[in-house]
Amino acid sequence: MSAQEPDQPRIDSAADQKLLSFEFAAICAISVLAFCNISIFYGFYSYLTELGIPPAWRGPLLALEPLTALVVRPFLGRYLSLKNGVQFMRAGMALATVSLLCYPFASTIPVLAVVRILHGLGFVTVVAGLMGTLMAFLPRDKSAQGFGLFSATILLPYAIMPPFVEMLLPHLSSHGQAYALAAPLMLPAFLLLVPLGRRSRARAAVLPASHLERPGWSEVRLAFKSLGVMLLVTANFFLVAAHAIVFFFMRDFAAGIGAVNPGAFFTCANATTIFVRVLGGNLLNRIDKVRTLLATFLGLGILVPLFAHAGKPAALLGMAALYGTGMALTMPLINSSMFNISCPRLRAYNANLLMVAVDAGFFVGPFLGGAIMAGELGHAVLFGIAGALMFAAALCVRPVARIMAENEIQK
After folding, report:
1. Segment 219-226 long-range contacts (CB within 8 Å, at least 24 positions apart)
2. Which residue pairs from 210-219 have beta carbons closer than 8 angstroms and sit at least 24 positions apart in sequence?
3. Residue 16, pLDDT above cutoff 50
4. Cα-flanking dihedrals φ and ψ of residue 195, to 5°?
5. pLDDT at residue 239 above 90?
6. Cα distance between residue 111 and residue 109, in whole Å
7. Mind giving me the DSSP string for 346-392?
């Protein structure tokens, strides 16, 4: 085979089986840059307190960005294909950049609401394009490893940005300035879209036409009627709602027990998650996905309520490492299970259904957490609810093993 130009995709059958490619690396790099502009909002609840926003409004404003994504994503997924995934990302990045630059000027409830809606619209469009493009370049037999590596890129900003922002804040007038400083991170992402767009178009040219067609409404209805699909979507919702509670309310709790850098919890948890996913990638392809998911959800259901009883920062960091290990397993295994039970034409749509669950979880989690804290029920109740959500996720994934086995028999 002759040498190919750097901006041309490998489209031969051997290359199709490779996980590590320019396309996959570009998608992961864009993911890192995109999630940097979300991970810095770990202290948004505290920022709303500093702005003097009434307690009853803090939860809704936290939840408004993911609520926007929740409303918009099902419609975006219907019109997403490999042909327009890069255009989705480009439009979303532009909206996200504008919203980040607006945060320093948003100090009232109406203006904050508009900025949060704009931010949610931009971010959901970026992620929809990312997921749709990822599906075209992900080998089926390495889907768990691929999702593990991809989700590690989502978590990397959560490990880096919170402590970095904590170090930066003393030199800034407010969190709003820190949010605006994340806007330039979109520039290298824009540059990566140029070669990725060329390779995506070339990839689309050699795929069967049936893989490129947008699913019809009848097929979308079938996806919603699939028990396995809906159970995985529901489990993902419970997982993310629990994680959102930990993410948005851990800072205040850690500071309350004397943590010098409250962002260190996220650094420890996400560093552990990344370590497990990167080194254990091949193992994720071989293990029993559903049984591992069930055991992990049960373990997280026990662990998360114990956060409230960590009397010292060192104990909390130890729990953070365990929490990171659990999160290292759950998300890639849910995504891989969805990939395996979906037909090729519905993979991108069903992947975005999982992201709808993410949006819903990030809406319900902070909204519920804000109500608990506004009612002064305390962190024990807060983390107890998060643990109960993990147990609910375990109940959802238990029947999926039987459904996947039945699908294999039918094939």
Report:
1. 219/345, 219/346, 219/349, 220/78, 220/349, 223/342, 223/346, 223/349, 223/350, 223/353, 226/341
2. 210/344, 210/345, 211/82, 211/136, 211/344, 211/345, 212/81, 212/82, 212/83, 213/81, 213/345, 214/78, 214/79, 214/80, 214/81, 215/78, 215/345, 215/346, 215/349, 217/78, 219/345, 219/346, 219/349
3. no
4. -70, -35
5. yes
6. 6
7. HHHHHHHHHHHHHHHHHHHHHHHHHHHHHTT--HHHHHHHHHHHHHH
Query: Cα–chain-centroid distance for residue 392?
Result: 19
For the four alpha carbons of 371, 38, 351 and 293, in that order, the dihedral sign comes to: negative
Pure H helices in 138-226? 143-168, 175-181, 186-206, 209-212, 217-225
Calpha distance 51→46 (Å, rounded): 9
Q: Which two tokens stand for residue 249?
A: 């309310």
Query: Which token pair is 83?
Result: 């042909």
The DSSP code sequence of 263-288 is THHHHHHHHHHHHHHHHTHHHHHHS-
Q: Which of 270, 241, 247, 257 is nearest to 385 (CA)?
A: 241
Per-residue pLDDT tens for 185-206?
889 999 999 898 888 777 766 6
Distance CA 231, CA 45 (A): 31
Residue 96 in tokens: 């996200």
Query: Do residues 406 and 334 lie in contact, with contact meaning Cβ atoms separated by under 8 Å?
Result: no
In the chain the first and final C-alpha atoms are separated, in Å, by: 35
Is 19-410 assigned to CATH 3.90.640.10? no
* pTM for this predicted structure: 0.67
> What 3-state class would DSSP assign to 11?
coil
Is 278 in contact with 159 (CB distance < 8 Å)?
Answer: no
Contact 321, 269 (CB under 8 A): yes
Contacts of 136 (CB under 8 A, 6+ apart): 82, 85, 200, 203, 204, 207, 211
Say if residue 312's pLDDT is above 50: yes
Cβ-Cβ contacts under 8 Å for 186 (sequence gap 6 or more): 33, 34, 37, 93, 96, 97
> Could you read off the pLDDT of 110-119 as tens digits, one per residue?
999 999 999 9
Query: Are 134 and 27 contacting, i.e. CB atoms less than 8 angstroms apart?
Result: yes
- Mean pLDDT, the chain, as a whole number? 79
